[in-house]
């Protein structure tokens, strides 16, 4: 921390550095808080049912039923956050011939949304549980700033009780949640591999079809050129001079017209239906290729987002377990000096812990934005 003195160059440099950091933070917030981000944030925090479901203690995050497709609260939240909703897409799956990998893509998106809901619940429960710790830190800081530098026996007993209470609370970002997150990442990798392989295979087929069309065009030009050469040779050796003289002129004038007519007749008589069928197949393959490409890009970004969230959730999980461990030890020893050291250590990391919690929540919202954006892009390719 530098002291700002008038005319001090180092002080001015320090002030410029602080202002530059603030400007970078402001630009980051502006870039992050887009309309889509604010829309999802409003959906979560503006719906009382969602807020109540996220804070519901009866729906344990460690139970397998909380991540089940039949969990009503999680289905409600997922249905509110997904765009378009999965129930609306189910009708489209029945009426349209959608590639089976695209159906797997939408299903994996639904599971990813449920995982985001589970993480949001973990963030909300962690923030609620941490209020107990913040009360202890507040008491300790108020005592330090007052005339009496030590806590009273009643205050110490209150803090011991609160630490014991926090130590007994379940970790909202439990190991089970982290395992489910890793399992979903593996599913995303599997879907991404299949999408990428199929996209490449269809791309090779399209390249082969384009190459065949080019070869067919070249062969047609060569065949027609050979026919013209034969006609000229026969014309030169003909006994009729007028025909011999007129043949090159007619060929020069009507070459383009004759080629178009011959090509149209030849294609219609011989390969008309086959070419039309090939054209439809080509268009369908291009359409599917575009859908698979959009889906693969969406799953790739989604997998990267889940990697970031997994690291943040693991870090928060370890920090919560550390606080619970030292709180449990402090309560067992019942020593005032140890209590002061524990509260001091927790208070020193309070800001960092809350920032990590906010960062995880922001990444969950960004992940939901990625899911909805990918779903919209795939549907645009389908229409």
TrEMBL record:
Domain of life from the UniProt record: Eukaryota
Assigned keywords, A-Z: Membrane, Transmembrane, Transmembrane helix
Cellular component GO terms, alphabetical: membrane
Organism: Stephania cephalantha
UniProt-recorded name of the protein: Uncharacterized protein
Family per similarity comment: Belongs to the UPF0496 family.
Protein's cellular compartments: Membrane
PANTHER family noted in UniProt: UPF0496 PROTEIN 2-RELATED, UPF0496 PROTEIN 3-RELATED
Main location: membrane
Regions that span the bilayer: 215-236, 242-266
